[in-house]
Design brief:
Layout: E1 2-10, E2 16-24, E3 52-56, H1 58-63, H2 65-68, E4 76-79, H3 80-89, H4 91-102, E5 108-111, H5 129-147, E6 153-157, H6 161-169, E7 174-175, H7 177-183, H8 187-190, H9 224-233, E8 236-243, E9 250-255, E10 260-265, H10 267-270, E11 278-283, E12 297-298, E13 328-329, E14 339-347, E15 352-357, E16 370-376, E17 384-388, H11 391-394, E18 397-405, E19 414-423, H12 427-437, H13 447-450, H14 462-466, E20 470-472, E21 478-482, E22 491-497, E23 503-510, H15 521-529, E24 533-534, E25 539-540, H16 545-551, E26 559-569, E27 575-592, H17 593-601, H18 608-630, E28 640-644, E29 651-656, H19 661-684, E30 690-693, H20 699-711, H21 721-729, H22 738-748, E31 754-757, H23 786-798, H24 811-845, E32 849-859, E33 862-867, E34 872-877, E35 892-895, E36 900-903, E37 909-911, E38 915-923, E39 931-936
Parallel strand pairs: 3-4, 3-6, 4-5, 6-7, 10-14, 20-27, 21-27
Antiparallel strand pairs: 1-2, 8-9, 8-11, 9-10, 11-14, 12-13, 15-16, 15-18, 16-17, 18-19, 22-23, 23-26, 24-25, 26-27, 28-29, 30-31, 32-33, 32-38, 33-34, 35-36, 36-37, 38-39
Length: 938
């Protein structure tokens, strides 16, 4: 049966088009109930074990998804019209409800009510789309009630009063989600309910004020119509709020309309916005813009004080690994910066947060409803007020809480308990917190995904060897050089002397795309995960282990498929020719960096592999010098390495990661392969290549580095990457750590490199500042990075091996993939750092240690130090907490120009990069927030 469906669509030109589509209505769509006497019940998911079938309206799905994910909720019908509405309103919730519906362990069923003859409804004259959808939900529920009347009870679950009233009038059984949950007799489930904003209790501390008498804490948000008008006229400015990771009272909004970041200072000016919210900002009068002031360290105990602290210009970009948390470091700016206040939220970034309940007295009655304050482990997040009936079970747990609303009359947002993670302080619990905080998917791969893998044991087939697009390179002396214990080996090398005196050098990369095909569940999962995540004690793979550690891994003495870049190079490392080919290789050795270095250093060893290593190292050194001469930067980071107990997984030792010549040799050839491949794919696909760029730092970004350099008499030229590289090379002193510290400081002034679609930017914007390369991409780690998988497909298409997948013709989708890769890459970095912080705390908890540190930043009440031995950075206080030094009073005086802090009587002074002795120990100034405390040893 055909039915016409009419709807209106607004064109880009502002005109309204009337569109008519024909819908084919069927009467053979089954209801999904296994006990139905009419429908085909094979593989039907609904069993009605509680003898009740639930039909959900859209708002219940949107607002109560945490509850729906609880196993206690079962036998649920999700109408197709509800699914579509949810998709239009919230992609994240749509993905979660789809996951429930596709999980065979959960009893959720999608019913296509829009295509069923008895449940399809036409839009009535004067009816809004929302009213029509509500009516369609009621019609479908009534059909279910009639269809299953003899065997099960069917309930419409809705919190919409009007929808519930109409359902009652039409003879449809309906309940609110709260009344249904109460009927289940499981009080703990009530904690999962989202409370509507209008019912927000919002009682501050011990105050029990009626809503009508509550104080107004925050300004009212402007209506969207006024915000839109203000943005158009230039009165307001739009951007994403970025809260300083080390100072929760300070945030920044990057505004394209004024071409600068707007500083938002104090919780009042943040006006209930969360980190990541898209906000509308009104600039404050210029006399209220922040200028240079004395600098201080803000401690954790100040966190609840909504005071106007010293403003900061600290870039909250990811820094190299730091094994310390819990201090807010306030930097300064030499010039006044635009400051503003948030007048409205354009798009919320609320999600679930990990943390614990603030300690509180135990309630009198067990299981009674109490109000509690949740403290997130992420200091950028304000405390969240929740209601719970299980406080006695949660006080010693890490838990997840979601935000529901934030009333302007409440100091804190309101939320609800989602689930418990585990005991506070337990390593596995705290590791899971790190993963959840950084949105890392650590779930096992589904059977659907694993079904995409070839059966084990796998080996190269005769068909692979006969493929005309694949070269047989098994005769070459190929070897890999990786970190010790590496099992996911995705790159290997070879170097062969040619009769003409030149070298054939090959970079061979695991041919992952031979097994990961576009549009498969395996590819979809890899697209979402984006990258493997490396924690201190384990790795979370982007692809299943059979691929990463066996089928694709270029292990020694086994034949494997590869994608190879082959160069002919002169002894002076000049590239004569480049060739790209799919290949079959057989690695003869899987070396660690230490083993490769030992071979090169042992003059007694003259075996072929060692000779190849030495030849490659000679070429790599020449290539490196040439790259540095072009302006490539050699930066440094505080990378930490742990020695882990294999049984307990506790850290046994901690230290800075050592870089050897062998590391640099491998890096040089990987960089060269990435540059070559970038050039090849862009030649063939100028609009849809996935590339990687590193934006040039602005003068403002480099200002902290220049200030520090000037204070120690160092002249840094930052006019170009070449000038900066030369300046860094000349920054030497008797202190063995001096140059490394300067390079670490330079690293922190840089923005992150990012993936992008070539069609989105112009060629001058493709430039990679750190590498001084006009073109760059990622090709060499497809086992670990999805970006490299995309690039492998582009390279194969450029060689005519495969046709270009259809996704490459959809630039918005490509841009979306690049955005997700950047998001996942950043989160993986943050998770790695979070794991380092956790294991550093575990290590020093039982090992208070005295060691040497270097001062890297001066503050009015102390300084920030870097501990070279452990790669740790943190604050050292000179004045009692809560006091500040400064030229106008106090015990200490800060000389901003010389970057020194001195006692007022001149008896003691500390300067930038000075060596000091400190004690490292774990302290807990706030409950459940341990931190590494650094104390000056007199």
């Amino acid at each position: 049966m055909l039915q016409s469906k009419t709807f209106s669509k607004k064109t880009r030109g502002g005109k309204v088009q009337k569109l008519v589509r024909e819908v084919y209505l069927r009467d053979d769509i089954y209801c999904g109930a296994s006990f139905c006497k009419v429908c085909d019940t094979a593989s039907a998911p609904l069993t009605a074990s509680a003898s009740t079938i639930l039909v959900l309206d859209t708002n219940v799905v949107l607002n109560q998804i945490d509850l729906l994910e609880n196993p206690a909720i079962e036998d649920v019908v999700v109408l197709s019209i509800v699914l579509q509405e949810v998709k239009n309103k919230n992609t994240s919730v749509h993905n979660r409800i789809r996951a429930l519906c596709s999980n065979p362990a959960r009893k959720f069923f999608v019913f296509s009510n829009e295509f069923h003859r008895d449940t399809y409804v036409q839009t009535m004259s004067g009816e809004t789309p929302n009213d029509r959808n509500d009516r369609a939900i009621r019609v479908a529920t009534r059909w279910y009630q009639k269809h299953l009347s003899d065997v099960a009870k069917v309930l419409l679950i809705t919190n919409d009063k009007e929808n519930k009233r109409k359902a009652s009038e039409e003879g449809v059984s309906a309940e609110t989600i709260e009344s249904y949950v109460q009927s289940l007799g499981q009080p703990a489930l009530l904690d999962l309910l989202v409370q509507p904003a209008s019912e927000d209790v919002a009682m501050d501390e011990a105050e029990d004020l009626r809503p009508s008498k509550r104080k107004v804490v925050y300004p009212e948000h402007k209506p969207m119509s006024e915000i839109t008008s203000g943005l158009t006229s230039g009165i307001y400015h739009q951007g994403k709020l970025r809260v300083n990771r080390y100072n929760p009272f300070e945030a920044y909004v990057g505004s394209e309309s004024i071409g600068d970041e707007i500083v938002i200072y104090g919780r009042g000016n943040m006006n209930r916005a969360f980190d990541g919210d898209v906000v509308a900002v009104e600039l404050l009068p210029r006399d209220q813009w922040h200028e240079e002031k004395s600098l201080s360290i803000v401690d954790e105990e100040d966190e609840d004080e909504d005071v106007h602290l010293v403003p900061s210009s600290a870039d909250d970009a990811p820094r190299p690994t730091k094994a310390v948390s819990g201090s807010a470091l306030n930097d300064n700016s030499l010039t006044s910066r635009p400051s503003g206040r948030i007048i409205g939220i354009i798009k919320r970034n609320w999600h679930s947060y990990c943390g614990s309940l603030e300690p509180m007295p135990m309630p009198a009655g067990s299981g009674s409803l109490v109000h509690a304050l949740f403290v997130s482990k992420d200091r950028r997040i304000p405390k969240i007020r929740i209601q719970t009936r299980q406080v006695e079970n949660l006080l010693d747990k890490r838990i997840i809480v979601a935000v529901d609303s934030w009333d302007r009359q409440s100091r804190y947002p309101s939320g609800h308990y989602v689930r418990s993670i585990g005991e506070i302080g337990d390593r596995d619990t705290e590791t899971e917190v790190v993963l959840i905080e950084n949105d890392i998917d650590a779930r096992p791969f589904s059977t659907q995904i694993l079904a995409c893998l070839p059966p084990l044991p796998w080996s190269v087939s005769a068909e692979d060897l006969a493929n005309p697009c694949r070269m047989d390179l098994r005769h070459l002396r190929v070897f890999s050089v990786d970190p010790p214990g590496c099992r996911d080996i995705d790159d290997a090398l070879h170097c062969m002397m040619l009769p003409n005196g030149n070298f054939e050098v090959g970079v061979h990369i695991a041919d992952v795309t031979n097994f990961v095909h576009p549009g498969t569940p395996l590819d979809d999962e890899a697209t979402q995960r984006g990258t493997s995540v490396y924690l201190v004690e384990r790795r979370i793979d982007m692809l299943p282990k059979p691929l990463t550690e066996d089928i694709c891994s270029l292990r020694a003495e086994v034949e494997r498929l590869a994608f190879s870049v082959l160069w002919e190079m002169t002894p002076g490392a000049e590239i004569i020719s480049t060739k790209y080919t799919k290949s079959v290789i057989k690695s003869c050795a899987a070396l660690s960096y230490v083993e490769a270095q030992a071979r090169m250093d042992d003059s007694r060893l003259m075996d072929p592999v060692t000779q190849d290593l030495r030849n490659m190292n000679t070429l790599a050194k020449t290539m490196r010098q040439r790259r540095i001469a072009r302006g490539a930067l050699t930066l440094a980071s505080a990378e930490v390495k742990f020695q882990i107990d294999t049984e307990t997984h506790d850290p046994l030792d901690i230290g800075m990661y050592q870089i050897r010549e062998a590391n640099q040799m491998v890096e040089e050839f990987m960089l060269a392969a990435n540059v070559s491949v970038a050039d090849q794919i862009l030649k063939h696909f100028s609009d849809c290549s996935l590339l990687r760029r590193h934006p040039t730092p602005t003068k403002d970004m480099l200002e902290p580095l220049l200030r520090t350099a000037a204070a120690i008499g160092l002249n840094l030229d930052v006019s170009s990457s070449k000038a900066l590289a030369d300046s860094l090379d000349h920054a030497v002193s008797d202190d063995p750590y001096f140059n490394k510290l300067i390079r670490i400081m330079a690293t922190r002034c840089m923005s992150q490199a990012v993936y992008f679609c070539s069609g989105d930017l112009s060629p001058p914007e493709f430039y990679h500042y750190g590498l001084a390369a006009p073109l760059y991409t990622h090709f060499t780690s497809p086992i670990r990075r999805y970006a490299d998988v995309v690039v492998h497909r582009l390279l194969a298409a450029s060689l005519g091996i495969y046709t270009l997948p259809i996704v490459f013709r959809d630039r918005p989708q490509l841009t979306s993939i690049a955005d997700n890769l950047n998001y996942r890459h950043r989160n993986a970095q943050m998770a790695s750092r979070g794991s380092v912080e956790l294991h550093t705390l575990i290590y020093f908890r039982k090992r208070p240690t005295e060691t040497e540190a270097r001062i890297v930043k001066i503050r009015s009440n102390g300084f920030i130090v870097f501990v070279p031995k452990y790669g740790i950075e943190g604050p050292v206080y000179l004045t009692p907490k809560g006091e500040k030094g400064g030229s106008s009073g106090g015990e200490w005086f800060v000389d901003e120009q010389q970057q020194k802090i001195k006692k007022m009587d001149g008896s003691v002074s500390y300067g930038i990069l000075q060596a000091v002795k400190i004690q490292l120990e774990v302290a807990e100034p706030q409950p459940n927030r341990p931190k590494l405390q650094l104390t000056l040893v007199s």
